Amino acid sequence: MTRRLLLIPTLILLLTPTLGLLAPAAHAISFGAFGPNGEGGRVNGQTLTIGATGAVEQLDAFLAIDGQDLNGATPGVAAQLSVDPLPAGLTVEMTPFLSGDSTDLILRYLISNDTGAALDGVTFLSFIDAEIDEPPFFDEFADVTGPLGPGQGWEVDEPGFVFGDLFDNLRDGQLDGTNGVQQSAPDDVAVGLSFLLGKLEQGESGIIDILISEDGDALPGKVVTQGDIDLAPLETITFSGQIVGSVPEPGLAALTGLGLAIAGWCRRRR
Ligand SMILES: [Ca+2]
Ligand SMILES: [Ca+2]
Ligand SMILES: [Ca+2]
Ligand SMILES: [Ca+2]
Fold first, then answer.
1. 191-215 exposure pattern, b = at least 16 Cβ within 10 A, e = fewer
2. In a domain, 9, yes or no
3. Is 195 inside a domain boundary?
4. Average pLDDT in the 96-106 region?
5. Separation of 195 CA from ligand 1 center, angstroms?
6. Which of 15, 124, 235, 261 is packed most tightly, with the most Cβ within 10 A?
């Protein structure tokens, strides 16, 4: 990839207390330590709560590279980071950043290529299965708004226990761009967001942010808002993400200060 880091250090929206004054009825996102490959949620023995009653069932990410099968005998080609080891020299690190008012959580993924060669067609895919309020977990729905961001793909579906093909599509590295859990047919909502980084040179790292918000904040691009037909007033969880840019590996020290700038891309959604 050739895009460079887009730093907007003057817009430190997320980490300023000012935003808290604007936030309606904040409940505070809280979380325990994520797994070694960034995985989280109940199935991974990790706690991530959102809003008054929301909790993440499963958080994971996938990585696909053109022409390579990264998950062995498992159907599809994308590595599920909590399960499938990546090729030597290819690493993904996830760092969580919580806003000062605890209403927004950015998951920052750093994908680094030290394999000794350039990698073509690198795609990162995020998977989140959250429940706003349960029981039951199958009375929820999602609205999808906003234009596609650069390199972006998306999918909302039942996670795959009943009818959804989201998990199959994550393994294929190709999301279908459809919402299978609309308000007219509520079920168990799960969300996929994908980002085509393209070519990752030897020594290069790509950076992707995923934003989970309990007060409607979102990054530019496609925005998925999860609701529950039982909750009044309506509580929501908002998912969005974007490619932040890339850095040559020796420049990674610059990331230390990057967390202060991550909210520059956030905008109010309501
Ligand atoms: Ca396979
Ligand atoms: Ca529910
Ligand atoms: Ca689908
Ligand atoms: Ca769910």
1. bbbbbbbbbbeebbbbbbbbbbbbb
2. no
3. yes
4. 97
5. 20
6. 124
- Written as one string, the DSSP assignment of 25-65 is S----EE-PPPTTS-BSGGGT--EEETTTEEEEEEEEEEEE
What's the 67 CA to ligand 1 centre distance in angstroms? 11
- Enclosing domain of residue 137: 17-265
Is 1 part of any domain?
A: no
CA dihedral 107, 163, 152, 94 (to 10 degrees): 20
- Both tokens of 52, joined, read 């008054």
Does residue 43 form part of some domain?
Answer: yes
Selection from 191, 207, 193, 212 nearest residue 261 by Cα: 207
In the chain the first and final C-alpha atoms are separated, in Å, by 33
How many folded domains does the chain comprise? 1
What confidence score (pLDDT) does residue 249 get?
Answer: 65
Distance 227 CA to ligand 2 centre (A): 8
Residue-level pLDDT at 252? 53
The H-assigned helical ranges of the chain are: 17-22, 166-172
Lowest model confidence (mean pLDDT) among 112-116, 200-204, 259-263 = 259-263
197: left (phi over 0), alpha (psi -120 to 50) or beta: alpha
**Which has more pLDDT, 233 or 269?**
233
Structure tokens at 263: 């909210």
Percent of the chain exceeding pLDDT 90 equals 78
User: What is the whole-number distance in angstroms between the Cα of residue 94 and the centre of ligand 2?
Assistant: 28
Q: Read off the tokens for 197.
A: 């980084």
